[in-house]
Amino acid sequence: MDFNNKVVIVTGASSGIGAATAEAFAKLSASVVLVGRNAEKLRAVAQKCENAKGKKPLVIKADMSVDFDVKKVVFETVDKFSKIDVLVNNAGFTANGGIRDGIEIYDKVMSTNVRGVYLLTSLAVPHLVKTRGNIVNVSSIVAKKTVKSFNWLAYSMSKAALDHFTRCVALELASEGVRVNAVNPGAVRTPFYEVISVPETMLKKFDAVMPLGKIAESEEIADMIVYLASDKARSITGVTNVIDNGNMLI
């Protein structure tokens, strides 16, 4: 696979799946746009991307729940590169809480995981149509199954919405040559779990219960994202692709 002369936007690129995805595209000669809230971490990822093939990424500090920031992502990308070939909607937010815990959690989660994705995608679509590009959304298996271990009502709802968003936009844009797919990871060893205070001991328990005896690494999810964005997946659209070490089986 080769992404030379391709412009790839990756949101949530400061760590975890986003960082691994940005690095994977950079190794395949893409011009990468790194979007995230932590400028220091973005700079570290940018350096790794530049080291891969000598191409300096565009770094954009942005919060996907803020409309001005979302609009800035598209404006600055097109201003620098004049086009967009791939959009990876990876940025996500979660918070523990169920139906008794108030509407505030719902609003915060949806503003990033659904509204931010909707707005960024809508702004990117005219440019993707010109390049016959594609979109990869990072969802989760919690879009497809309830998880007893965590009280993630709003997060699960947001990922279910993202899956259907993927299908609807795929159908809308198919006639214009733009593909839209999603990846649905199970547990992945990323800083995401540190943010929600899940200890390493619990991750080891996850390893033990998975049918394949492990949870995924960020690079594995990145590999699937890159594949879906490549010409090798040119006949795939509207699909939500589970990568979970068999978690959906139990």
Structural descriptors:
250 residues; alpha/beta; Rossmann fold; two-stranded parallel ribbon; 8 helices; NAD(P)-bd_dom_sf; oxidoreductase activity; oxidoreductase; SDR_fam
The CATH architecture assignment turns out to be 3-Layer(aba) Sandwich
Give the H and E element order: EHEHEHEHEHEEHHEHE
* CATH-level-4 superfamily name: NAD(P)-binding Rossmann-like Domain
User: What is the makeup of the main sheet?
Assistant: 7 strands, parallel
Q: Which consecutive residue ranges, at least 5 long each, have pLDDT under 50?
A: none
Write the layout of secondary structure elements.
Blueprint: E1 7-11, H1 16-27, E2 31-36, H2 39-53, E3 58-61, H3 67-81, E4 86-89, H4 103-131, E5 134-138, H5 153-173, E6 179-185, E7 188-189, H6 192-195, H7 200-209, E8 216-217, H8 218-229, E9 240-243
Parallel strand pairs: 1-2, 1-4, 2-3, 4-5, 5-6, 6-9, 7-8
Helix pairs in contact: 1-2, 1-8, 3-4, 4-5
Protein name: 3-oxoacyl-[acyl-carrier-protein] reductase FabG
InterPro entries: NAD(P)-bd_dom_sf (IPR036291), Sc_DH/Rdtase_CS (IPR020904), SDR_fam (IPR002347)
Keywords: Oxidoreductase
